[in-house]
Design a protein that fits this description.
With 278 residues, the chain is mainly β. The chain has no helices and 19 strands. The chain is globular and about 45 Å long.
């Protein structure tokens, strides 16, 4: 018998709060040292349904004139939380509620999260013991999703938390050179999502960046083109735009690379991490 998916049953769960508040999501405080994640903060106590997609929004960590490198983990479970999305580069994320031009960083992942799951987050940053905001949206409900869904994310390109791999963009629209993010993936993946932040920059210049992702050896195959990011003059970084994951079968032991182009002369050092779903 042919099974036909039901229509109109997509449900959404989130922790954004009420519109009467001046903040969005849940406060997550960075650790006491730059290389240490802070205490996990509960985002949702118990999910209401089986979810197949998660959107993570990080905001309110950027500060004008201050370095704000940072990384964020999304976790599931009780007091012994399991990290399912490690080290999203949340650094320099703006505040869309209180700051003109401030924008959250947003990432989407096709992940299965069962009903009744507790979800939490933890963060590390160079602005230590500092609160940021994390909002999540879960999508799912009855039936099966019309796309492949994973159970965890592996992040490539991280150095010492909260920093990642330096990638130099080409200037004034030119493509930069491919930079290796990892020499060999630890397992097979089917989707990939990028992260970007600046490194220790307290005097940013407004720029637009476009990132490409490649797989393979020196003659990389480009699998994602023009993931756009915005750099603000008040030390903010927003993106990616488009936030849709790149669906691509990536075998274990695959080399991953990235390159970027910049709308003008480059300003400071740019860092990249790649989040791969399996």
């Amino acid at each position: 018998m042919l099974w036909v998916p039901q229509k109109g049953v997509l449900r959404c769960d989130h922790n954004t709060g009420t519109v009467g508040a001046t903040t969005v999501g849940t406060a997550v405080t960075t650790g006491a040292s730059a290389s240490t994640k802070g205490t996990p903060a509960q985002l949702i106590a118990s999910t209401a349904f089986d979810a197949y997609w998660i959107r993570v929004c990080a905001s309110a960590y950027a500060s004008s004139g201050a370095a704000s490198d940072g990384s964020l983990d999304i976790m599931v479970g009780a007091a012994t939380e399991e990290i399912i999305i490690p080290d999203l580069l949340m650094g320099y994320c703006g505040d869309p509620v209180t700051s003109i031009g401030g924008m959250a960083k947003t990432w989407d992942f096709p992940l299965y999260i069962p009903a009744g799951t507790r979800i939490s987050a933890q963060a590390a940053g160079v602005r230590t013991a500092t609160a940021m905001r994390v909002a999540i949206f879960l999508y799912g409900g009855d039936g099966y999703p019309p796309f492949r869904v994973g159970s965890k994310v592996v992040t490539y390109g991280m150095g010492t938390v909260p920093n990642a791999t330096a990638v130099t963009p080409g200037a004034s629209g030119a493509e930069g050179s491919w930079t290796q993010i990892t020499a060999s993936t630890s397992e097979s993946h089917f989707a990939i999502v990028p992260s970007l932040q600046q490194n220790n920059n307290t005097n940013m210049v407004a720029r637009a960046l476009a990132m490409d992702i490649g797989v393979g050896a020196a003659t990389e195959e480009e699998i994602l083109q023009s993931s756009w990011w915005g750099i603000g003059s008040t030390e903010t970084v927003a993106g990616p735009m488009n936030g849709m994951p790149c669906f691509q079968d990536i075998p274990a032991a695959t080399r991953l690379t990235a390159r970027m182009s910049c709308s003008g002369t480059t300003s400071g050092t740019y860092e990249v991490a790649l989040h791969a779903v399996s």
